[in-house]
Design brief:
about 400 residues; three-stranded antiparallel β-sheet; 12 helices; about 15% strand; globular; binds pyridoxal-5'-phosphate
């Protein structure tokens, strides 16, 4: 057997690759430069053009661009009027921001467990957590695969809830032929550099509801309006504005929007390449009994942001940590998505018990996210598979 790099052998690759990174080309740089030398560098025509493009891509009626995906979740939770005393059901298999937005509003996150095979929130678990205090549901399209939205929409309608879909992973994904962004009451995206397209930072909310849209447009800029019809006091002249509620400065700049518009030009290419890489991994992992791949539901036509595998400890002598470290030494740097949110200290101090969502906890213990991004060559993808084979051969029982 070949000696693992972690024990002094030769690594499978000479250079490190990570689980995700941005792809920026000369056209992106030119678009940013053109904006920077122009008259408007913060909210200007490019922000609006970006919002229009996101509506075209998703079929949603309204888009609000914001500073980042977390600001988008905050604005969505505010538009949904989550308030102290309300309960909002959320998946624990996500980045902290999905639940933090509920706390920002003073409401209470209630964690519902995931499906053990798709890792998305389980609608039956959501239903079991609904009480008279429940005001909404925050779901995440984990890795880019759409949640099973139909049963969630049914629960929304039956109990009069607001459904927020955190689609930070799922730009371009379709559910039953409809683009993510046009289905839930509010759908949020993130344009952080590891996501499918990036603005350095950036975020957006999509909705079909005009009242929610108006609320979020004001929330993005201090709760201030320049529309005399919305003011609480008489208009005094062209300089006049009024603050009618409490908002924030969550604006996206035109510079970031220039980058995002240029990235969107490449999005079809990004999405196609991600599908190709996912198909290669899927085919190869069919011959890796030590790994379980994510179950795909036929309703979701998925543009994958992450590729996660689950180790089967019953077939392995090494722990997830040992395998993670061994892969790292081979220069294939994995990651883990996600630590169940309520395990984080801040949530522990709020009193959430261990064992609350057993499927999420079991998934976390054995999960690994492997490299998946546009800039990977076919050789890079093969090297991930060679490294896995080498490491798993060593640790197989
Ligand atoms: C990235 C991400 C966020 C946060 O987005 P930011 O743009 O980094 O604020 C929220 N939820 C999920 C699921 C994410 O992956």
């Amino acid at each position: 057997m070949e000696k693992l790099a972690i024990f002094g052998g030769k690594p499978v690759r000479e250079t490190q690759i990570h689980y995700g990174r941005q792809y920026i080309d000369e056209a992106d740089c030119a678009a940013v430069k053109e904006c920077m030398l122009g008259p408007l560098i913060t909210t200007g025509p490019r922000v609006q053009a970006l919002e229009e493009r996101l509506c075209e891509l998703t079929g949603a009626k309204y888009a609000v661009a914001l500073a980042n995906g977390t600001a988008a979740l905050h604005a969505a939770a505010h538009a949904a009027k989550f308030a102290p005393g309300d309960e909002v059901i959320v998946t624990p298999m996500t980045f902290a921001a999905s639940a933090n937005c509920i706390l920002y509003q003073g409401a209470t996150p209630v964690f519902a467990d995931i499906d053990p095979e798709t890792y998305n929130i389980d609608p039956a678990q959501v239903e079991a957590k609904i009480t008279p205090k429940t005001k909404g549901i925050v779901v995440v399209d984990f890795t880019g695969q759409a949640c099973d939205l139909d049963p969630l929409l049914t629960l929304r309608d039956k109990h009069g809830l607001t459904l927020i879909e955190d689609a930070a992973h799922a730009l371009g994904t379709k559910y039953n032929g409809k683009a993510v962004g046009s289905i839930s009451d509010l759908t949020t995206f993130s344009f952080h550099p590891v996501k499918t397209i990036t603005g350095g930072e950036g975020g957006a909310i999509l909705t079909n509801d005009e009242a929610l849209y108006d609320s979020m447009m004001m929330f993005r800029t201090h709760g201030i309006t320049r529309d005399p019809a919305r003011m609480g006091r008489p208009w005094e002249g062209p300089w006049f504005y009024d603050q009618v509620e409490l908002g924030y400065n969550y604006r996206l700049t035109d510079i970031q929007s220039a980058l995002l518009l240029s990235q969107l030009d490449k999005f079809p290419m990004f999405a196609a390449r991600r599908r190709e890489m996912v198909a290669r991994y899927d085919a190869a992992f069919a011959d890796f009994p030590e790994l379980i791949v994510q179950k795909e539901i036929p309703q979701s036509d998925t543009v994958r942001h992450l590729y996660v595998v689950r180790l089967r400890p019953e077939l392995l002598n090494g722990t997830r940590r040992e395998i993670f470290d061994a892969m790292y030494a081979e220069n294939v740097c994995c990651n883990v998505h996600y630590i169940p949110t309520y395990w984080l200290s801040y949530y522990q101090q709020l009193g959430y018990p261990q064992g609350l969502c057993p499927n999420a906890e079991a998934f976390y213990e054995n999960a690994l996210s492997i490299p998946l991004y546009y800039g990977l060559t076919d050789d890079d993808v093969e090297s991930v598979l060679v490294a896995f084979r080498k490491v798993l051969d060593h640790y197989r029982k």
